[in-house]
Automatic annotation (TrEMBL):
Domain annotation Nucleotidyl transferase: ranges: 1-230
GO MF, any single term: translation initiation factor activity
Domain of life: Archaea
Organism: Archaeoglobus sulfaticallidus PM70-1
Lineage of source species: Archaea, Methanobacteriati, Methanobacteriota, Archaeoglobi, Archaeoglobales
Descriptive protein name: Nucleoside-diphosphate-sugar pyrophosphorylase involved in lipopolysaccharide biosynthesis/translation initiation factor 2B, gamma/epsilon subunits (EIF-2Bgamma/eIF-2Bepsilon)
InterPro entries: Mannose-1P_guanyltransferase, NTP_transferase_dom, Nucleotide-diphossugar_trans
Record keywords, A-Z: Initiation factor, Protein biosynthesis
């Protein structure tokens, strides 16, 4: 499921789909794809018309088919449940559903085994370990393995086990999904559908206890995911001898780094960037960016920006921006 418009990461995701954001040399959806292709199931990526060409480029060397939702902006989108309902009508089969912005270090084999023993709808759960944090998500009330009820962003969570955008729907659950979307019920959040499904049939939770999970919903969670997944990789670049590069970092081809610059740790630098006397750490910089006497920390800079004499912390800068101030 990759049809959202990721408004919390705007302006970056106005021109780039969130599942295709880099986490080093790989993108978010690359990591999901690698985890599921081993099972040999047909893989479908549901996205929108706005980002169709981006996903076509991604899918060229992948064993995956695209399903295109005919929307171009946030106000037009079908919503996750309705989009999935339309897919269910066409595929008419069991569905293994994963949110396209969902990052997790654990394997899915045991969840599949659990599904085969239960033969009922399954949703993956993760213990966030904090009641206040659980309020941001869909929360499961569990009786043994069965989900008694699913609460979407509750004021008083019954547990800290949250849904993490991974579902296995048997044929009965798929039929209920189609019924639900045709009925005009709440359509945007899959948690609402799970609440409905719990009233109709047995739904089980599968808690993952080993590994990490990242909901890449905002800049902070994106940077944290980058820190976990990034590896050390440097392309064909020009670097002055006094430049310091602190792994892990990824620096793409064509970059020029001059002067007393310090890159890393946890930095992604896109292609053809020019960096002079600047520090970059825990940040993502897209292609063709110019930095002169800049200091960046936990920031995201879109393509073709130019930043001079500036310190940025926790910032998101949209493409083609030129920002400068007096000498540092």
């Amino acid at each position: 499921m990759a049809g959202g418009y990721a408004t919390r990461l705007w302006p970056i995701t106005k021109t780039k789909p969130k599942p295709l954001l880099p986490l080093g040399k790989k993108t978010i959806i690359d990591l999901i794809y690698e985890k599921i292709r081993k099972f040999g199931y047909p893989i479908y990526v549901s996205t929108n018309k706005r980002f169709e060409n981006d996903f076509k480029k991604w899918a060229k060397d992948k064993d995956a088919r695209l399903i295109i939702e005919e929307t171009l902006k946030e106000e037009e989108k079908l919503g996750a449940v309705r989009a999935l309902g339309e897919i269910a009508k066409d595929l008419d089969d069991e569905l293994f559903v994963i949110a396209g912005d969902n990052l997790f270090s654990f394997n899915l084999e045991d969840m599949l085994k659990f599904y085969k023993t239960k033969k009922s709808a399954i949703t993956a759960l993760y213990d966030v370990g904090d009641v206040e944090l659980a309020k941001r998500y869909g929360v499961a009330e569990i009786d043994n393995d069965r989900i008694v009820r699913f609460y979407e962003k509750p004021e008083k969570p019954p547990s800290t086990l949250v849904g993490i955008g991974i579902y296995i729907l048997n044929r009965e659950a798929v039929d209920y999904l189609v019924e639900y979307t045709d009925s005009g019920e709440k359509r945007d959040n899959l948690g609402d559908f799970l609440s409905y499904l719990c009233q109709k049939t047995e739904v089980y939770g599968y808690p993952f206890t080993n590994g990490n999970w990242y909901d890449v919903g905002n800049a902070d969670s994106y940077i944290e995911a980058l820190k976990f997944y990034i590896e050390y990789d440097i392309g064909y670049i020009e670097v002055d001898r006094i430049v310091k590069i602190i792994p892990p970092v990824v620096i793409e081809d064509g970059c020029v780094i001059r002067g007393r610059s310090m890159i890393g740790p946890y930095a992604y630098i896109g292609k053809n960037c020019y960096i002079e006397n600047s520090d970059v750490s825990e940040s993502v910089i897209f292609d063709d960016v110019v930095l002169r006497k800049a200091k960046l920390w936990r920031s995201i800079i879109d393509e073709k920006c130019e930043i001079r004499n500036l310190e940025l912390s926790g910032s998101i800068i949209g493409g083609h921006a030129k920002i400068q101030r007096g000498e540092l």
